[in-house]
Design brief:
Elements: H1 2-7, H2 12-33, H3 45-66, H4 72-79, H5 82-93, H6 101-118, H7 129-149, H8 157-182, H9 189-217, H10 219-223, H11 228-240, H12 247-264, H13 269-274
Length: about 280
């Protein structure tokens, strides 16, 4: 939602730069106020830079570009593909997150739930394929960066987030300066609110949680949250924008959550439930 509002009034380059820069500044302030050391492990520097590029600059830009033509709800569908790409890539690039029958079944069920929700909503209006390709490509880069982030082991999650966003901002700075020299920013009140909301609510805080979950639960587990994005989009649209919530929306949500449960349930959960406690 914040991205959609932002690209209506500024360029994608400016939005991405302000997003990562403000988020980085906010996180460093929080770290300083909590008197925590800003320590980056020497072995994590290259993965951190790669994550800044693959998980920030490229997908943020692709999504911003896509939402110049696509609705935010339709764009969110592409993000649900992240777990699928993570599952495929993890099969080849990890040793502890191999595909299992339960994960495959769960993701298939969740994909069916997404289809139940969104296929009826898809418009028959022609959309340039380049915007759809950009949205889907963002999911590929998110998946790659999630697996790279798993290699970050010696840096705290909040420091990881701040450093990654700082690197992204520094790399985007030259492009931002060129962009504003050609098209000066006209920051309206609503635009400022959208940029700050995107930077803090949708970037800084979630990034800390993201790296913590990746470190503790793995890339595949974390990537499953992407299935929930369209679900929350429907809920927020219903409660805040008074959009209609159909029976198919509710059914699709139940199917999505069922698929996620299959992917994340503990091993031998049924046996544990039925084993008498002593």
């Amino acid at each position: 939602m914040f991205i959609k509002l932002g690209v209506e009034e500024m360029s994608v380059i400016a939005l991405v730069f302000l997003r990562v820069s403000i988020a980085s500044f906010f996180l460093f302030i929080i770290i300083k106020l909590n008197k925590r050391p800003i320590h980056v492990s020497r072995h994590d520097i290259i993965p951190l830079i790669l994550v800044a590029i693959l998980g920030n600059i490229i997908p943020f830009s692709l999504i911003g570009f896509a939402e110049q033509e696509l609705d935010s709800g339709i764009t969110s569908i592409s993000v649900t593909l992240v777990p699928v790409f993570v599952l495929i890539l993890a099969q080849f690039f990890t040793v502890d997150e191999r595909i299992t029958a339960g994960k495959l079944l769960g993701m298939t069920i969740s994909c069916c739930g997404i289809a139940i929700i969104f296929v009826p909503k898809l418009s028959l209006n022609a959309i340039a394929p380049i915007y759809v390709i950009a949205a889907i490509s963002s999911a590929v880069f998110y998946a790659i960066s999630t697996l790279v982030a798993k290699r970050i082991t010696g840096t705290k999650p909040e420091v990881t987030s701040a450093f990654v966003l700082l690197m992204a901002g520094l790399m985007m700075l030259p492009f931002f300066l060129i962009d504003v020299s050609e098209s000066p920013l006209d920051m309206s009140f609503s635009l400022v609110g959208s940029v700050v909301g995107l930077a803090i609510i949708a970037t800084a805080i979630p990034f800390v949680l993201m790296y913590k979950l990746i470190a503790e639960k793995g890339a595949t587990f974390f990537s499953l949250n992407n299935y929930l994005i369209p679900v929350f989009s429907l809920m927020l649209g219903s409660f805040l924008l008074h959009e209609t919530l159909s029976v198919l929306d509710i059914l699709g949500t139940v199917v999505v959550l069922s698929g996620i449960w299959l992917c994340t349930r503990p091993k031998n959960w049924w046996r544990r439930i039925n084993t008498p406690q002593t």
